Amino acid sequence: MRLFRLFRLLDLMRLRSTPVTATALATELSVSVRSIYRDIADLQAMGAPIRGEGGIGYVMERGYFLPSLRFETDELDAIVLGLKLVSERAAPALGGAAQRAAAKLSSVLGEAQKDSMADSALEAGPSRASNRDGGSLPFARLRAAIAAKEMLTIDYRNASGRFSTREARPLGLTLFENAWLLTIWCETAQDFRHLRLDRIISLSGTGKRFRAEKGKRFKDALDLERSKLGQRSLGT
Amino acid sequence: MRLFRLFRLLDLMRLRSTPVTATALATELSVSVRSIYRDIADLQAMGAPIRGEGGIGYVMERGYFLPSLRFETDELDAIVLGLKLVSERAAPALGGAAQRAAAKLSSVLGEAQKDSMADSALEAGPSRASNRDGGSLPFARLRAAIAAKEMLTIDYRNASGRFSTREARPLGLTLFENAWLLTIWCETAQDFRHLRLDRIISLSGTGKRFRAEKGKRFKDALDLERSKLGQRSLGT
DNA sequence: CTAGCTTGTGACAGTTTCCGTCAGGGGCTA
DNA sequence: TAGCCCCTGACGGAAACTGTCACAAGCTAG
């Protein structure tokens, strides 16, 4: 299949920093030189930043990547958070670049993600100083609970200041504009809820585990919720 | 060409968070259902995280992206810098994820980049506090000069504390472990040099412009230098 | 300037691959 | 049970790909 060859071609180009001739690529891929020219023309038509110069060879611009890069969800969260830090305060010269990169990422993560990034309705009020860096937030505990499908008991203080205690399945962590949200299936309310991590007073495991989601209703609800949140759930 | 359709297929999958049936994809792409099955089989064989369940449809795992994502060089720099910030101080829970993401990026950017990241020989001494955020560094000025191919006069203080003035072609900016480096072609020394931005005392344009690199010697040297640095040059 | 590379483009026949259609198996939901 | 839907196999016609040849253009080195 030609697809494989095209990706191999991209890989070969990416590795080298010195120009490569079409004949070298041809022998490497066991095809004729003409095919290499055709392949590269197609790749260029698709937007690959390959530059060819007569008498020299082909060079692929650095600083790009169009490989089959796969980030785990928490790695993606780290990237998004890092871009936020950069655009907010770190390097003024790179602020614009950070915002553009974030925009590209959000567009890739789906339309829903873009909406949630722009939407600050859930995030009224100045909370930047308190939880921007997530220093004291129970990330590790929640991450482990999500992965282990461990039912949790959560003490929470909502936006109005009211306290509540609930039993819930932790489903995922979402980074909003400037706060982390924990998505849960609340066993008490039999519905999804989103808790701001910095408003969680305490949490403890119940020892019980919830099954992997089964049943069409729950799945549909979960998908709907994800589409609304643009969630990047943590832990598969 | 089938390649286009495969990428459109990936885009379609990525946008949705709800399962998509093969028939829906078939009508969207104006091909038969059988072709969709074949396409998806090929994509899965290539490592795409597409999950298919009977009676439901196809879902692509979130948190991944293997699209033809293209970041501009400064956007990539913002990402790398952001990951550095996250791993160093921001969110302890995401530190590991940030380092893994940085490792993936560096592996993609070429072997040379990985070397330069690990190599801190050029970076002896505690410079973290001074130039970590790049607040007062002449990014914009240098970026513009690189893009305009504008010859510069640079006053510099080297690691030993010695002052020098040189005329140089600015070629690119590189983010090292914790310092920004300006790669130049030094007209005085007729060789490449790497200047730490926080050691640049002053710089001014000479008004002269240097031609696009010509000549095999210069090109080869440039490529060699890039391979050593793993440079992500700024400005085409 | 000449000689030697190398990138590009066009044409063409042979071959390969792809595509749609038809048929059937298996798993899940209601 | 009925109804979806994911899968797999087979097959003929259509489309794309491939290798070969031929030629133009640009750069490098001497």
Task: Give me a quick take on this structure.
2 copies of one chain form a homodimer. Chain A has 236 residues and is of the alpha+beta class.
Sequence-ordered SSE layout with sheet pairings:
The structure is a homodimer of 236-residue chains.
Chain A (H helix, E strand, L loop, with lengths): L1 H14 L6 H8 L3 H13 L4 E4 L3 E4 L12 H16 L3 H17 L2 H8 L9 H4 L7 H10 L1 E8 L5 E13 L4 E7 L4 E6 L3 E10 L6 H14 L7
Antiparallel strand pairs in A: 1-2, 3-4, 3-7, 4-5, 5-6
The structure holds a DNA duplex (30 and 30 nucleotides).
SS-based class of chain A: alpha+beta
Q: Please trace the helix and strand order of chain A, writing H or E for each element.
A: HHHEEHHHHHEEEEEH
Please give the CATH class of the domain at 129-229 in chain A. Answer: Mainly Beta
Uncertain stretches of 5 or more adjacent residues of chain A = 63-69, 107-135, 212-236
In quaternary terms, these chains amount to homodimer
- Helix content, binned percent of chain A: 40-55%
Biggest interface, chains and residues, is: A-B, 77 and 77 residues
User: Largest beta sheet of chain A, briefly?
Assistant: 5 strands, antiparallel
Strand order of the largest sheet of chain A: 6-5-4-3-7
Task: State the CATH topology of the domain at 129-229 in chain A.
Answer: SH3 type barrels
How many beta-strand elements of chain A?
A: 7
